[in-house]
Design goal:
DUF7542; alpha+beta; 3-stranded antiparallel β-sheet; single chain
């Protein structure tokens, strides 16, 4: 799937909605809980491919030993002093 899909369900009433983004789902959960005091849960059914890759590259647990160090998504840390930014080290022909 190319996008995010989140299902929101209330354990105390018949509320059940599907959202195409995490933000909209969070708002629905917050609004319903605030208005009713009900216990609302959400299920992230799918996320964009880039989000999924970033999660896999970072490691689910977030520990450095779980990360994919070869990933361009992992922050390698600050550049060594004296080195040129990549754009300067490869001038256009």
């Amino acid at each position: 799937m190319d996008g995010t899909r989140v299902t929101v369900r209330c354990r105390d009433c018949s509320l059940a909605t599907t959202h195409d983004g995490l933000r909209d789902a969070r708002v629905a959960v917050s609004d319903h809980e605030s208005a009713t005091g009900h216990d609302v849960v959400w299920d992230i059914e799918s996320v964009d491919a880039g989000v999924s890759r970033a999660g896999a590259d970072a490691g689910v647990c977030g520990r450095p030993e779980c990360a994919n160090e070869d990933s361009p998504l992992v922050d390698p840390g600050p550049p060594e002093s004296g080195s040129k930014p990549e754009s300067e080290s490869h001038p256009e022909s």
